[in-house]
Specification:
The complex is a heterodimer of chains A (262) and B (579). Chain A is mostly beta strands. Chain A has a single domain, classed as Cupredoxins -  blue copper proteins (Immunoglobulin-like, Sandwich), CATH 2.60.40. In chain A, strand 12 and strand 13 form a beta hairpin. By secondary structure, chain B is α+β, with helices and mostly antiparallel strands. Chain B folds into four domains: 104 residues, Orthogonal Bundle (Cytochrome Bc1 Complex, Chain D, domain 2); 160 residues, no CATH class; 213 residues, Immunoglobulin-like; 29 residues. Chain B is built from twelve helices and 14 strands. The chains are: A mainly beta (262), B alpha+beta (579). At the A-B interface, helix 1 and strand 10 of A face helix 1 and helix 10 of B.
């Protein structure tokens, strides 16, 4: 009797868990590889804020450096060898192109409205490889090449964008998006190897690591926050964010070591 | 102890069920039972019960049945980034999507059932529920009727806007970007062949074409060529011409610097207005005027481009070469024309549609070669054929590619019986590479374009290369997405294994073709069943035998093949339902 009850309960439990998985998965795909945004954010002047900085390093065997096959417009695109940019590291395995950000900040500084927001297509490569774009701001796509490109942004919460950028169009501002999302992939279909990422963000506490793997978040109002990261090949830590406490005017150091996601 | 566990579990279960129900009701608003029923009965085996494009029949199909959960719809009358209108969905369900496995449902489902299923598939994507304003539709104002001049202007736009990158020089889908395209689901995809518009997903009218490139084809690599994509957006035609003139000068005078500077400002302003509009900002009357003026110029250009694209295909899909349309080789007293000869232009093509080989493994469910077209001349001693077919890629060897898989060599085979049937009741060999009755095959491969290998074949595993080769004169070429193959032979040869030709005698003919980039190799191929051709007798000749009967027989074969394929499909459907 006990056993019977236990089994039927177990069956029920498994079943209902199954339902949860189903319900979770029903929305957007690949939740694990996204950023986490606060429910709301309000901007106000921050004085005496603190600073969070650190270095992101790669751990484990580096994937083989993959040379890209340039099968088109060789004169412009193949002038120098190109490599897959999903893992770019320095000599000490410092990891470039990692987004480090605050997950749960609800008030803080405003975006720097004067900052240039551009992504270039040069030598048939997108630069930067990871671009942060504030919600409501216009990203300008540049075409520094003498060939035709198309800008294909695979948004799913915002509208999918796929616009041609012929060689004569040196600058192409894109409409601002309304919702935080990302990172979403950017592609040029004409040159299939050209790939980059855009994150549409609701607040300015996002940084992308440089060649030395460094990031800095400045003017953080004193408080305790969840610190997140995202990397194209290493995934994210939305399940286990790091908690940091910033004192007014203080500086917190927080390094990360990332492995390839499975 | 047991009690504790029990209570804990009950709470857990109650909670989890609560969550699941909650999130479920959020995702799926109330839907009519009817729509759900129609969907699950007619659509789910391709599109999946949950609309994710993962039904049981989806595996082998390319393009894949649409995943409805991302709200990406190809065929829309709405602007870039917008969802389709209900009418768009209704129309595509009614008409189907040629060139893919999406069937039309006009005869299978009543109109109200189609409307119910439209509502139902919309429940798979929240965007339909969340949208606050109706989608913006593409304006069809200012249509310019077709004329050669209009198409000519369209042709320059085709190059300037970069259509050529994917669709190729003359639109056969052979652009240099074609081999590497993938869609939003990372599946391989090909640019449409604009010269075979009967395979367009969304219709062949100039209006359809217009909407496709302005609104884009969501989820595919095909971009949306909307307003500001056009050169000098915001300038009138005169201003645009003037600016190009000035830009082409080695050096501008100070006056020209100033004049062009003003024009640049004007363009920037128009782009900003277009962005405001795209972001949903209400435009001031002045801004609206700037936008409308700019769009008038764009509409004009777009109609020219649509006219050009329309002109790339024949008026209608050619009639299949059967019955009265059967290939009739034309008699000439002269030397037979070589491949380059203009004389070929005096003949009409005979059109042979090809289908994927789905009878035996490995099958080809997603053919990329539409058809082969044939012309022929003969004289007292020889016959010459010109075969043409479209293939987006020129593959002459096996190539491995991490992203697109392995590609093989392209080729074609022309198949005849070894002996023409003696009469209409005389059975032909099995259409797929013969059987007990052998077939005589001309096999041509793209790597050796001036050579044909003569084969005797008695079934797919019984292929013999004939001992006597070299009876044929052959020339092949590939250009702009098209193969042309020229073959000349004596009417009669000394080789008993060859087919011997005689004017007035109807001879069965069938084709196989391989697009190596689409994974075609050996038995995986596109092919036809038996058709027939005849050396059209010179009027004085009285050897005209039994064309109508042969024609009828070929129709019979075709219907048989279709029936076979359909039976196979429905058999596998049934197998699925049983599971």
């Amino acid at each position: 009797m006990k056993i019977k009850l236990l089994t039927s309960l177990a069956v029920l439990l498994v079943f209902s868990l199954g339902l949860i998985v189903f319900a979770d998965d029903h929305g957007k795909s690949d939740e694990m590889n996204k950023l986490v945004f606060p429910k709301s954010y309000s901007a106000k002047a921050v004085s005496g804020g603190g600073k969070i900085s650190g270095v992101v390093k790669f751990e484990g065997d580096l994937p083989e450096k993959k040379k890209l096959e340039i099968n088109k417009d060789e004169a412009v695109c193949g002038a120098e060898d190109k490599y897959d940019e999903s893992v770019v590291v320095g000599e000490g395995k410092e990891l470039k192109n990692t987004i480090v950000y605050l997950m749960d900040i609800s008030t803080g500084k405003d975006f720097d409205k004067k900052a240039k927001l551009e992504m270039d297509q040069k030598g048939c490569k997108f630069t930067p490889h990871v671009q942060i774009v504030p919600v409501g701001a216009r990203l300008t796509m540049l075409n520094s090449d003498k060939v035709n490109h198309n800008v294909h942004i695979f948004s799913s919460i915002n509208k999918e964008v796929n616009k041609p950028q012929p060689k004569v169009r040196k600058k192409m501002p894109l409409a601002a998006v309304k919702k935080a999302e990302g990172p979403v992939e950017v592609k040029c279909d004409i040159h299939g190897w050209m790939k980059a990422w855009i994150a549409y963000v609701p607040h300015p506490y996002f940084a992308v690591t440089n060649e030395k793997g460094e990031f800095t978040l400045e003017d953080v109002p004193a408080g305790t926050y969840k610190l997140g990261y995202w990397h194209e090949a290493c995934g994210s830590n939305i399940k286990e964010p790091v908690t940091v406490t910033v004192a007014a005017g203080g500086e917190v150091k927080q390094d990360f070591t990332l492995k390839l996601k499975k | 102890m047991f009690r504790k566990v029990f209570v804990l579990w009950s709470i857990l279960i109650g909670f989890t069920i609560f969550i699941s129900i909650q999130s479920y009701t959020q995702d799926a608003p109330e839907v009519s039972a009817k729509g759900k029923e129609v969907y699950e009965h007619s659509c789910a085996h391709c599109h999946g019960i949950e609309g994710r494009g993962d039904g049981s029949a989806a595996e082998n199909l390319l393009p894949k049945p649409r995943d409805f959960t991302r709200g990406l719809y190809k065929i829309r009358s709405t602007e870039s980034g917008e969802l389709p209108t209900d009418q768009d969905l209704f129309d595509i369900i009614t008409d189907g999507m040629p060139g893919s496995s999406m069937p039309g449902w006009e005869s299978q489902l009543k109109a109200d059932e189609r409307w119910e299923v439209v509502s139902y598939i919309k429940t798979f994507y929240d965007g339909f529920k969340e949208r606050e304003t109706p989608p913006r539709e593409i304006s069809l104002e200012g249509k310019i009727a077709y004329s050669a001049e209009s198409a000519q202007i369209g042709k320059t736009l085709y190059t300037d806007l970069g259509c050529i990158e994917c669709h190729g020089n003359v639109g056969r889908g052979d652009g240099t970007s074609a081999p590497t395209l993938t869609d939003a689901w990372n599946d391989r995809t090909w640019p449409a062949n604009l010269a075979e518009n009967w395979n367009f997903r969304g219709g062949t009218d100039t209006e359809d074409i217009f909407k496709r490139f302005i609104g884009g084809i969501a989820g595919s690599p095909m971009p949306a060529f909307e307003g500001d994509s056009f050169l000098h957006f915001g300038l009138s035609s005169e201003e645009s011409k003037r600016l190009s003139e000035m830009e082409n000068k080695d050096e501008m005078t100070p006056e020209e610097e100033e004049e062009s500077g003003k024009l640049y400002e004007k363009m920037d302003e128009a782009v900003l207005v277009a962005l405001d509009r795209a972001e949903g900002t209400e435009l001031t009357p002045e801004a609206q005027k700037i936008y409308d003026d700019a769009m008038k110029v764009v509409a004009e250009k777009s109609w020219h481009l649509a006219n050009y694209v329309k002109s790339l295909s024949p008026e209608k899909r050619p009639e299949t070469a059967i019955g009265n349309n059967s290939l009739r080789s034309q008699y000439t007293v002269e030397e037979l024309p070589i491949i380059e000869d203009e004389a070929w232009n005096t003949l009409e093509d005979s059109y042979y549609p090809l289908v994927g080989q789905v009878v035996i493994e490995p099958r080809q469910f997603n053919p990329t070669i539409d058809s082969v077209r044939v012309k022929s001349f003969y004289n007292d001693t020889e016959v010459a054929f010109l075969f043409t077919w479209h293939d987006r890629t020129h593959n002459i060897e096996v190539e491995e590619n991490e992203d697109t898989g392995t590609s093989y060599e392209d080729g074609i085979a022309i198949q005849f019986p070894v002996k023409p049937p003696k009469g209409p009741t005389d059975e032909k060999p099995y259409f797929l590479w013969g059987g007990k009755k052998p077939v005589y095959v001309w096999q041509w491969k793209a790597s050796e374009q001036d050579k044909i290998t003569e084969l005797t074949v008695k079934g797919v595993n019984n292929v013999t290369v004939q001992e006597n080769q070299g009876d044929l004169n052959v020339k092949g070429e590939y250009k702009d997405g098209e193969y042309r193959l020229w073959v000349k032979r004596a009417l009669t040869t000394d080789d008993k294994k060859d087919l011997q030709l005689e004017p007035g005698v109807f001879v069965p003919i069938a084709f196989s073709a391989w697009d190596g980039a689409n994974g075609d190799k050996d038995i995986k191929r596109v092919m036809s069943s038996w058709y027939s051709f005849v050396l059209e007798p010179v009027p004085s000749s009285r050897r005209f035998i039994y064309p109508p009967i042969v024609a009828l027989l070929s129709v019979g074969f075709l219907i048989g093949l279709r029936g076979f394929v359909q039976r196979r499909n429905s058999a596998s459907d049934e197998a699925e339902t049983e599971q």
